[in-house]
Amino acid sequence: MGLLSLGTPLDWHESRKHNEHVRKNGIIQLINIFKQHSESRTDDKFLWGDEVEYMLVDVNPNAKTARLSIDKDYILNDLNDPKKSLHKSEENNISFHPEYGRFMLEGTPASPYDGTCLKDYAYVEQNMILRRKVSESELPAHIKPLTLTAFPRMGCPNFTSPPAQPIGPASQSLFLPDEIINRHVRFPTLTANIRKRRGAKVAINLPMYPDINTKLIDDSIPKDRDLFLSDKEPWLGASKPGHVYMDSMGFGMGSSCLQITMQAKDINEARYLYDSLAPITPIMLSLSAASPIFKGYLVNQDVRWNVVSGAVDDRTFIERDVEPYTGYDLFGGMHVDKRQRLPNNTQYVNEFGDWCDLKTKDGKPIQKVPKSRYDSIDNYLNDHKYSTAYFKDEYNDIYAPLNEKVYHHLSKENPKLFDKYLANHFAHLFIRDPLVLFSERINQDNATENDHFENIQSTNWQTLRFKPPALYPEGTDLSKTPGWRVEFRPMEIQLTDFENAAYSCFLSLLSKAIIRFKPNFYIPISKIEKNMKLAHNVDSVLEEKFWFKSLDQWNLNHREFIGYDLSWFDRFLNKGNDELGFDEVYVNGYSLNGALVNGESEDDLAALNGSLNGNGHPNGFYRGRRRTIDAVNDIDDQGIDERYTVNEIINGNDKFPGLIRLIVKVIATDLLPTGSHHCENKELAKNLTRIKNYLVLISNRASGKIPTTAHWMREYVLNSPLYKRDSKVSEALNYALVEKTIDITDFKDKELLTAFFGETLTQYLTSN
Ligand code: ADP
Ligand code: MG
Ligand code: MG
Ligand code: MG
Ligand code: MG
Ligand code: MG
Q1: Residues with Cβ < 8 Å from 73, sequence gap 6 or more?
Q2: Which residue's alpha carbon is nearest to atom 13 within ligand 1?
Q3: 600 in a domain, yes or no?
Q4: Of 21, 187, 424, 464, which is most buried with the most CB atoms under 10 A?
């Protein structure tokens, strides 16, 4: 959750006086970072790591309740205390961090994985299992660290253990007590400052899942509370009919996600990786969907993203370009009567009756800001080495306001370090105000510190984060410090360590394949934004088609990926046990480097294409591949050839490789140890089998063979005898659902696991 400076946090009205100071010095710090690292780092290793967020849930089988535990946050100290804890960071290679919620934990590997080593991919799950075990061992038996994306009844009466009342001044929420917020002063201050900057409480409205008995009104909103002025906001337009209304940061930042950070060899490679992953973000959001329930309601969407986005949306009414609630300021303190305002919000009538341009209190023109500081990315980075053959300026096609001063400072005064794309990127991040400032940290040494930069950087919560190295004192051995990294942030957390390891490895291996094969994935960024919306929809993984680079324009030689579907693993492993040597196995099929070995001709290729069209390839490599779901094809926009099902993007289609073949090939070519008798190596076989099963999970979710977590949860609720077909998830139903998720997490119930994972994976999981 970014930096945790100690000290006295400033209230918004104090803090805002230093906004310009933080930005100005933050940019100097950024320039110093670039001076130190842009040129000097040329060959950093492909290291990577995951972040898993847990919720501590107090499960009471007698009372049949499952509640968020808000008084066990001391375990973080225990977990991180080298003297006292079981966690033994060095030995176990696990590390725990605080998160927004007092009921939350974040766990990471203590030092990153080596992404050039197959063994390390297979080790990820073990590391995750250990994190869960160790945190469990620090907790009473009835409290489970669960990896739920959203707690189904967060914000309902009595959703915490021990109980707490929603009367806190930091959030002023009608539903969430301040006692759910991390005790560190940074977090309540962040909560309050977002509300104060915005000029109102945040307001999130999720469409209810309409069922036959659903009352299309959120009847959980208290009508008569008179504790804070903001209590009346839902009745002034903050709450929308037919929607579940949420009014506090905790609804979003109290959800859990899975993040992956990867280190590139240099800044150019990091920029190309960032760009290439941008179109992948909505696809992985859709594939990892795990949150169909909020505030005790089944909602008509499957993911958390827009909830978090709304939960930290600190933009004023005027920045959002909406009418303020009656009697509310457009922005910090200036009263503007909305009847006397031009419809385009550019002018207003002042107290003397004159039309004036809208300006902030300090006289600057007001900038409209289209998106929350938590949202999808707005600009590609286009490096000059790898992206340049693919990138077009028109791909950066959405309106992304800039901090002009910052843009000028970077691109005009430091053009060698910041080309226009980098300048653009940071100038866009720097339109935001710092949200929490500690009085002791206002003045910093820009030559050795970078907290002001990090302050702005780490409160721009986007689908991807371009992470520059930190600033180090002169003489530091930079090769031992983190370099240019890209963080992948859209994924929802999954119930089991197996799934979280699968999604993490998938993403890291995909990044490795991107760096290796240099595909062209660029599409206009506006299309990615459309995809983000599509990814929210119920069962989007099967029901929607997503914009993606035309499969014939990836700039890959598709032939080189023939044979690298999931059956590659079986061929590699089985043939390895043959009397035949490893090399000979491939004489009759495909060589490891992917080229057809013998008799390659146009006829062969035609036969192959025929087989991919469903006629059955003689070698059977594509047997079992699912055709694209026809119903989905039918709803395609006519004539648009760049929308694909997630299945096509992940598993390929009749002509093109799909992302999984890129991954299989990078494993086959870059991650296998050299030597001709690999398959006699039991450990290698085990590791490959594990990774194969990760890809099977992703592949099967993409094709619809098995459900997403969100789909499974929704079905569970809809089919429960406790469900009254009114979209509501009662306390009893919440308990029943949480119990089932625990059974899945702990691999307890084979029938349940089969419904969730399908037979093949269940077989694998329960026999290991
Ligand atoms: P944040 O919350 O700011 O994203 P964390 O420290 O919680 O940062 O997580 C960062 C992740 O990056 C962890 O999984 C960590 O293992 C990983 N990591 C650390 N160093 C490197 C590195 N040099 N390259 C890639 N990943 C790294
Ligand atoms: Mg986190
Ligand atoms: Mg973290
Ligand atoms: Mg973080
Ligand atoms: Mg979070
Ligand atoms: Mg992170």
Answers
A1: 98, 102, 103, 182, 183
A2: 49
A3: no
A4: 187
In this predicted model, what pLDDT tens digit does every residue of 300-321 receive, in sequence order? Answer: 999 999 999 999 999 988 888 8
Nearest-CA neighbor of 656 among 703, 609, 590?
609
How many angstroms separate the alpha carbon of residue 171 from the centre of ligand 1?
30
Q: Which two tokens stand for residue 249?
A: 């940061």
Q: Is residue 73 part of a domain?
A: yes
The helix, strand and coil proportions of the chain, stated in percent and rounded to the nearest 5, come to 40, 10, 45
Instruction: Residue 87: give the domain boundaries.
Output: 46-315+369-395+451-555+675-697+705-768
Distance from C-alpha of 136 to C-alpha of 132, rounded to nearest angstrom: 6
ipTM of the complex: 0.95
The number of distinct structural domains making up the chain is: 1
Give kind and range of the element (H or E) at residue 145. Answer: strand 143-146
Closest to 341 measured CA to CA, from 325, 330, 352? 330
Residue 338 lies in a domain: no
Q: Are 665 and 511 in contact (CB under 8 A)?
A: no
pTM of the model: 0.90
Residue of minimum CA distance from atom 11 in ligand 1: 49
Centre of ligand 2 to C-alpha 618, Å, is 49
Angle in degrees, 0-180, between the axes of helices 750-757 and 759-766, rounded to the nearest 10: 130
- Residue among 50, 108, 460, 486 whose CB has most ligand 1 atoms within 8 A, to mutate: 108
Q: Is the per-residue pLDDT at 339 higher than 60? A: no
Atom of ligand 1 nearest to the CA of 483: 23
258: enclosing H helix or E strand: strand 258-263
Distance 552 CA to ligand 4 centre (A): 37
**CA–CA dist 689, 698 (Å, integer):** 14
Q: How many CB atoms lie within 10 A of CB 129?
A: 14
- The tokens 């469900």 sit on which residue? 723
pLDDT digits (tens, 9 = 90+) for 448-474: 999 999 999 999 999 999 999 999 999
Cα angle for residues 75, 68, 497 (degrees, 5° grid): 70
Q: What is the CATH number of the domain that holds 713?
A: 3.30.590.50
On whether residue 525 sits in a domain, the answer given is yes
Q: What's the residue count for the chain?
A: 768
Separation between Cα atoms, residue 426 and residue 407, nearest integer Å: 8
The residues facing 109 across adjacent strands are 94
Atom of ligand 1 nearest to the CA of 110: 16
